[in-house]
Amino acid sequence: MKPIKAVYFLLSTDSSITANIYPQRIPEGAALPAIVLNQISRVAYDTKKEYSKSDESRVQVTIVAETATEAYELSDLVRDSMNATLPNTFNTVLVQNIAFQNEITLTDDNANEQGVFMVAQDYLIMYSNTSITNDLLLLEDGSYLLLEDSNKILL
User: What domain range is 137 assigned to?
Assistant: First the structure.
């Protein structure tokens, strides 16, 4: 759920994205365009010494619109929004990396008479699966030390 919270925050705080955003599915009768967020998979990165404090999830962002043009334009805005400055904290989730993986276009001709147009984008998101205060050590120069792998990061 953490990567969905982070993606929701990124998209919902972007003023160029005016579509409603939903987890897993669009409610029946909801206005289009709309965006659906699904976590496809989650992989832990365990070390030899302990369980991982970082996970990587594949998150699918599906844009649903009444026209192909509207779906394509909104998909470009979503991709721009996902190009965030990292590492960073979004909605209490420390996100270390977001990598765009692929994009496909879909249609649903069973959605009433006119159908809908969809663009599905997949992102790999690496994030901290523990509380932020347990993962970071504030250094004198204002940067942080990521305790899991001793990498110095700036927030």
Answer: 2-153
Instruction: Note the pTM of the prediction, 2 decimals.
Output: 0.80
Cα 10–14–15 angle (5° rounding)? 165
Name the token pair of 38. 């699904």
CA 119 from chain centre, in angstroms, equals 15
Residue 41: how many CB atoms within 10 A of its CB? 10
Calculate the average pLDDT of the chain: 85
Query: What's the structural domain count of the chain?
Result: 1
- For residue 42, the cross-strand partners are 57
Question: Contacts from 44-50 at CB under 8 Å and sequence distance 24+?
Answer: 44/129, 47/148
Query: Do 124 and 39 touch, CB atoms closer than 8 A?
Result: no
Instruction: Give the CATH number for residue 62.
Output: 3.30.2000.10
> How far is 51 from 69, CA to CA, in rounded Å?
45
Q: What average pLDDT score do residues 128-139 get?
A: 62
